[in-house]
Amino acid sequence: MKNGHIADLELSTISILSGMPVNKDIINPKMPREMAERVKVTFRPVPSSYYEGNVKNYRESLINCLKDNGVDVVPWEEATSEEVTNGLISKLLSTRKVKRNINAVIDVKRDHSPLRKVCTQVAEGIYRMVRNSERSVMDILKISGWADDFTARYVMDPFNTQIITLMTLDPEFEDKTTTYERKITLGLRNLISTMSEIVIGISGKKFAIINMNLSDSIYDHDELNSFVTKSLIPKIYAPIKPPVLNRFIQGKFDSENNEYANRLAELGRTMRETDLFPEGSKFSEKVKRQSHRDVVNKILDGRTGVSYGFIALAEAPKYAGKKTVSKEEWESFNPIDGIPEGDVRATEKDRWYVKTVLNDKEVYQQIPDIWIVTSRSGCDKTNLNPTTDIVRIGLIKGKLYLEIPGGIDLTRRDIRPSFDTYVILAQAISSALYKPEIIKDGMPILHFHGYPDPNWFLENEFHAGATNPSLPCGTVEAAILNYSAIYELAINNTENANLICLVESDHGVNILGPDKEYIVDRLKSGKASGEVVLGGKHLPSLKANTAARQ
């Protein structure tokens, strides 16, 4: 793999093939140092009365580690500017605001005084009286956030600047016997109470990270450098961003009579006994304050909660005309605006063909139309109702399509494609190009927030990606890594693959293959034996196994 290329394709080409906007400035997601050099962070000053010694010591080590790895750590006074306000009350309540070019603010969790709690109640009462669903995030925070001391109120652009909060690690989270579900309950509580995208808990011996990917990764303090380069910097560089509806050409489909939708619903039911897809979490049930719920709603594009994975079924790829052409034919085709002409060209009938390279052999393939039925964001994956819980996403010549069941209102707030949409599409298009035998009759894709033991894999079962940087879902970088993993498996003699496991550190795994019954049986047996579990128990051994093979 050359820097800036995967499978001899430009990274921007893979982005477009996976349905993402044209972006000429993408960097190789396997190069954390390049990410670091584009990241700016600032640390909010710690109160003089702050007493948590483990957190203070970790904070100093983190500052030095970020600097050593190329991150621009901007002093608070330089990273902020005075808010311009009108009116006497506004001036009295004005604060310094973090500038838009800062990627993250790192703060410590602060205790609220009794007076501040009273002010917060007053502010929330005012907000409820003037609440308007059209208000922006910043408008909401101006009305309700003046009484709070959470870091979000100090940010100019909450869509560009992430909040990272350092706090004492809950002993229950650190306990190896604590279940994944309980850890996520603890983690969500901390994310919500601090209004943060990322929370890092610190004890004398360990530290742990939680973000909206709902990972439960725990590290020893001597692993700080590896954590910063492979986990924290990628998360700051590429924040979680859900796919927004206005990127899709929207329509409807007959889900009750759609073969793949019904097969997907059956797949979900057969996975129930594995307990790998626990019920999601509704923010409306966990965020007490209306203003905070409205802020989360704006940032998540109307989503009301988070899910623990997804299930999807890629339909057989759709072609029109010859699947492959000669080099001479391909070179006679037309360049496409925005795509390097050495990667993709179009026929007079506007069918796209891509130059693929496998083991030094060039093949000029048609890029098929991709359609995938998938569980909508936030639903129960093991009890899918085809008329309400399944959406159909399409990818045709770089354009995204979203079809929802007929009879459902497109404005319904819980009808949203998965956070992982770009990853799902990248897996499907890469499979069609490099391992067509696993998708030619349709391909199940199951994503859950856990990992298998390396000893669980049988002959003709493969895993890849465990040593990649841990990039969040919904990002172009995560999609590129999944596209790359399929390609790398294809060139490493993985013929007759019955099962492929694509590992995403601090997130989970994607299990895919040609036979859904085979995959279900394998996951059931793995769960029964303890070799497939939710949470990060088996991630270190997967990383070690992958590193040994490289």
| Structural class by SSE content | alpha+beta
- Compute the number of helices: 18
Beta percentage is 15-25%
In helices, the fraction of residues equals 25-40%
Strand order of the largest sheet: 12-22-21-20-15-23-27-26-25
Average of the residue pLDDT scores: 86
Number of strands: 28
CATH architectural group of the largest domain: 3-Layer(aba) Sandwich
So what's the overall shape? Answer: globular
Quick take:
This protein has 550 residues and is of the alpha+beta class.
Can you walk me through this structure?
- The protein is of the alpha+beta class.
- It is 33% helix and 22% strand.
- The protein contains 18 helices and 28 strands.
- The strands form seven sheets. A nine-stranded mixed beta sheet has the order 12-22-21-20-15-23-27-26-25, with helices on both faces. Strands 4-3-7-8-9-10-11 form a seven-stranded mixed beta sheet, with helices on both faces. Strands 16-19-18-17 form a four-stranded antiparallel beta sheet.
- Helix 3 (53-68) crosses helix 10 (224-237) and helix 15 runs parallel beside helix 16.
- The radius of gyration is 24 Å and the shape is globular.
- The relative contact order is 0.13.
